[in-house]
């Protein structure tokens, strides 16, 4: 999976197409990511002894194929590739060759 936590991504397909946000959670086994402000779902929380009833808005996971890494400096979506830097595997922008991390 090329997307990591705290990456800025843009949604390229689905109901939130064009929205950008920060990845808050990555689920690699399901190939899904949770992006802040994208795929917001309404959850009804029942009342308990300690907490009152409420309606919560939470972000749901979306498929990783529907998001693309967003370069904030270039203001566009970029493809991610890998390059070996000594013994380390480093993520790079495939068009310019610049390191991402």
- Major sheet strand order: 6-3-2-1-7-8
What overall geometry do the principal axes of the alpha carbons give? elongated
> Which sheet architecture does the biggest sheet show?
6 strands, antiparallel
The helix/strand series, from N terminus to C terminus, equals EEEEEEEEEE
Number of strands: 10
Oligomeric state of shown chains: single chain
Overall pLDDT: 95
Number of helices: 0
Helix share of residues? under 10%
For the CA atoms, what is the radius of gyration? 17 Å
End-to-end distance: 15 Å
Low-pLDDT segments, ≥5 res: none
**Class derived from helix and strand content:** mainly beta
How much of the sequence is in beta strands?
A: over 45%
Describe what this molecule looks like in 3D.
The structure is a single chain. The chain has 101 residues and is mainly beta. Helices cover 0% and strands 50% of the residues. Strands 6-3-2-1-7-8 form a 6-stranded antiparallel β-sheet, with no helix packed on it. Strands 4-5 form a two-stranded antiparallel ribbon. A hairpin with a 2-residue loop joins strand 9 and strand 10. The protein is elongated and about 55 Å long.
């Amino acid at each position: 999976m090329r997307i990591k936590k705290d990456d800025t991504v843009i949604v390229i397909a689905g109901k939130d197409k064009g929205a950008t946000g920060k990845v808050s959670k990555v689920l690699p086994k399901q190939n899904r990511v949770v992006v802040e402000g994208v795929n917001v779902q309404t959850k009804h929380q029942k009342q308990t002894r300690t907490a009152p009833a409420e309606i919560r808005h939470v972000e749901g996971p979306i498929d990783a194929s529907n998001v693309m890494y967003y370069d904030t400096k270039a203001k566009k979506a970029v493809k991610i590739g890998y390059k070996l830097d000594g013994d380390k595997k480093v993520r790079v922008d495939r068009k310019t060759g610049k390191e991402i991390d």
